[in-house]
Write a structure and sequence with these properties.
The chain is built from 21 helices and no strands. With about 425 residues, the chain is an all-alpha fold. The protein has one domain.
Length: about 425
Amino acid sequence: MRDKASGLLLFLMIWASLFSDIFAQQMRAGLVVLAGCCSWAAAVILVSRVSRFQKYQAGTIGGAGLLLMMLSVFSGSSIDVVSAISKNAALVSMIASVGFLRLIALSDNHETSLPVGSMAFFKTLFGVSVFGSVINISAPILFADRLHTESMLTRLASASFTRVFSGCSAWSPFFGGMAAVLIYVPGFKLSVVMLLCLPFAIIGFFVVCLEAWFLKRDELKEFRGYPVKFSSLWIPLVLTAMVVTMTTLKPDWSILTCISLSALVLTIAVLLMRLKLGAVNTLQQHIATQLPRMANELLLFLVAGLLAQGLAGYIHGGGWSLPAMNFGPLQAAGLLFAMILAGIIGVHPIVTVAGLSPLLLTMNPNVHLLAVTYLFAWSLGTSASPLSGTHLVFQGRYGINSWKGAVWNWPYVAVMFLVAVPMLYLVSHLLE
């Protein structure tokens, strides 16, 4: 019953968030409040689903945010209560909307035999990368589930999947990372940042492949991969075309709205064509069972919004500021290193992005360089963190200890950090 109620609240949050951007100005404030209230109500209902560590972390972050808001009021600064309640509602709505795509993106045919060999490995990784960039965590789960039905998921498969999937968050607009950066680093062009970050993800993909080719050659020969059907690639292509078309026709809509609406419209249209009236039951099932599973992300993103609002108000009231300095490639590299370390000890990137942005923006940085730094950190931090959603899912579903999975990725993260630093210098030079 709790799951159904929270699922309905989250579904209402999605549409309230969408309509707040689509409808006339006079209706937006009420819809924004509705979206925020629905998200918090769902979080309260789902708090029993949240792990103990996440509860402690969320309580600390939310408490700090509320304390900073109180200090801001005492210092004479005003607090935007509506923003505090609904700061990340659009972000959560986008993540939830994209999750619906798993209903149509891949049809897992268990009667199809698994291909074997190095080419099967490379095709499987390509599939995880392409579909993961659109349907998020659902892609590696669907791929890994199929392999897990045949035998235990190997270290090679687990590490490769999590690395390639984490690389998607460096550039994909369908990930929470990009959505968070769009909210906390206003003013950058999405297309520019995607083009700047995509090479990083491609390099990461080839690093994974080359490591397997040179160090795991014997395992590659026996690797049982996923039967990727490239005819299914039409879904990412159509979704991308829909988003581009919508942003062109409706430039006043936010990119988060365009992505969320495109994902929902495409999912509903395809389900109606495939299942006719059965589509309604499929959607109801997803709302009741799958939406509540985002309890951890939901609570963390909401309290991060409180922290960001509290910091913004405190800084605006003159309570805290950074010394005068430039935000150049050296500072970007230092920020990247610090965020990776924070990820390793369990601090989610949304917390560091929300907490640091009000401070860093006082330095008047190049917003594109800051956005790229955040996205690199999101990608590598989640790959290295034992408490990232990806590693926790792999622990729960396939018995791979989250700490062990994270430690397996640390050498890869170190290599990609060495790739990221010169790329940050190059980005800084290109943006001058």
